[in-house]
Write a structure and sequence with these properties.
By secondary structure, the chain is an alpha/beta fold. The chain contains 13 helices and nine strands. Helix content is 36%, strand content 13%. It has a six-stranded mixed β-sheet with strand order 1-8-9-6-2-3, sandwiched between helices. α7 crosses α9. The longest helix has 20 residues. The structure holds zinc ion (ZN) (2 copies). The site of one zinc ion has 9 residues, from α11.
Length: 325
Amino acid sequence: MLRNRVPGLRRFYLLSLVTGGVAAAVFVPPSRSERESAAGSLLSLEPPLRQAFMDHGEFQAKKEPGGLDWLATHEEPGQTFNEYLGSRPNVPNAGRGKLYILPIGGFEKGIAPDLAKLKDYTAAYYHPMPVEMLPVLADAEVPAKGRINGMSGKKQWKSTDLLRWLPGKLPKDGYAMIAVTMTDLYPDENWNFVFGQASTRNRVGVFSFARYHPAWTGGVGDAGTEALVLRRAAKVLTHEMGHMFGIRHCIYYECNMNGANHLVEADSTPMHLCPVCLRKLHHAIRFDPLGRYAGLGKFYRANEMNQEEAWVADRVRKCQVIPDP
Ligand SMILES: [Zn+2]
Ligand SMILES: [Zn+2]
């Protein structure tokens, strides 16, 4: 019903959908040949690209979902590389080639993710597209209906109001813009909350990081909390930007483009793109794969994201070894 009121609207991470929803058909993890054929034929590609869109053993097949996980509750058809091409996706052009992040309201140090780091990560992820952080908008400038959530006792904005307003804020040279806020969101009076919403047609979205820190539920952080909050925010921002290029949820591998129903599931998905989604992104923005990984590796190293740094180093090594014909 929400979808009918805002054309092109996509909803993500709607927790209450799970409890009220109907179980989807059983998801069968894809075989190796299904995963390989989802990436499309690599025969006509130059060796560096062919290597980048191959799985040399560094990727994991999409796992069977648990009871409340995304694929247990949503029928996802998947989207092969050829289906992606056939969908004639939106891609950037010379006049409309920038990604924007629009922060709204306060971002309290220690609770909120570091905006400068989020910008750097988005720029490395979507290399070579320019990424710009717009000046922070004050809460008072947001023309959205608000309420106090009965369960949390905290303020929320109606995300559909934000989605109607955001297209007017997208700069002329903007390909897409994601607004981020520490204010909690709700999509409709019947919903408890939503992590975010986006309109792929209008190429705008809004995401809240309010629930990413344990302080939301009265907890306290520890030495790993800052990194956890940054990882969660970085993942959702880059996942959402991926939808803006027409990339649908991934069902082939454990991948940043997997759908996620709840924070535990979102935390378990990797930050990287699988070969299928990487090839789609390459179609849209034509990056040099090793140059892109160099930027990501640098970010992970600077932020002590050791697991991700090691994954990127391994991936680069494997992409550089050209197997015998
Ligand atoms: Zn999504
Ligand atoms: Zn993928």
